[in-house]
Amino acid sequence: MLDCLPIEVHARVGRTAETEDDFGSLDARGRRDIGAALQRLRETRDLRGVTVVINRLPPQHVGLGSKTATVLAALRACALAGGWDAPEATLQHLSGRGGASGVGIHGFFCGGFVADGGHNVSPEVGFFPSSSGRAEGVPPLCARLEVPPDWRFHLFLPEGNCVAGANEEQFFRENAPIPADEAHAAICSMYHGVIPAIAAGSIATLAHALRAIHRSGFKSRELGAQLSRVQGTYRALAALDDVAVGMSSMGPLIYAVTGSSDVQLESELLRVARQHGAKRLAVARARNLGCEIGQSDGN
């Protein structure tokens, strides 16, 4: 979880039982998903008089994981405004998220680096993205680590495909499950590469593990489905020393992780990214805590 590009949701109790939520710039599918999640919440508790307003959103469908965080933020704000400190597990279930990955629905509450154990499903059932809401239960949280506070996460957005909705589900149908040996290799790179790298604060170990993850398995298929500019940005940044690079989710967002602030290295990252037509969205530290709750105007 990163301390940048935040989602801000406000909820207030109205004078009547009628609500008129404001989802801001959220797209049509997002409005439908959040509307359905809030309806499930309001049916669980009498929260019909609570209005939810989304004040701030990061770019959608680029690999930031904003949809899960937005749904959970709306649910938690609505519940708290109505006087109910709903349990984490209840909000996770009501969100309808976590169809493939539990990273978003765990990271929202605890921050830091999280790794989950996925779902116990068979190939006959099928594999679907987290937005599909097809899986039962929440993927178990297997690891949660504090990310070194001096690490910097550089987020670059090249011109690429924004894969979401029906297109993402189609991608899963065509590419999952992957061969067992590739799945085992990816799991090995995660639990014997990425996690030890974060625990030890080693950018070099993280870079090696991320390169392995992007060479095969599901991630290589996600990267291969992107436009050449995304692939070129990834390869050019990954070729630099002292940088760990990856593509987030289905992309096109590319992230580059560096150690403590290095002006020369940051300048080189920006130069290489611009060569491939990628703009920098943000440079941020990790966020080692979950969502924040505040009050305004006495509400």
CATH architecture assignment of the domain at 147-284: 2-Layer Sandwich
Determine and state the CATH class of the domain at 147-284: Alpha Beta
Q: What is the overall shape?
A: globular
Average pLDDT over all residues: 91
Structural class of the secondary elements?
Answer: alpha+beta
Number of helices: 10
- CATH topology name of the domain at 147-284: Alpha-Beta Plaits
The major pleated sheet works out as:
4 strands, antiparallel
The tally of beta strands, per DSSP, is 8
Order of helices and strands: EHEHHHEEEHHHHHEEHE
Which percent range describes the beta-strand content? Answer: 5-15%
CATH superfamily of the domain at 147-284: GHMP kinase, C-terminal domain
Cα-based radius of gyration, to the nearest Å = 20 Å
Low-confidence stretches: none
Structure description:
This protein has 299 residues and is an alpha+beta fold. The protein has a domain at 147-284: GHMP kinase, C-terminal domain (Alpha-Beta Plaits), CATH 3.30.70.890. Helix content is 42%, strand content 14%. The chain is built from ten helices and eight strands. The chain has a four-stranded antiparallel beta sheet. A two-stranded antiparallel ribbon has the order 1-2. A two-stranded antiparallel ribbon has the order 3-4. A hairpin with a 6-residue loop joins β6 and β7 (254-258). The longest helix is centred in the middle third of the chain and has 21 residues, at 180-200. The protein is globular. The mean pLDDT is 91.
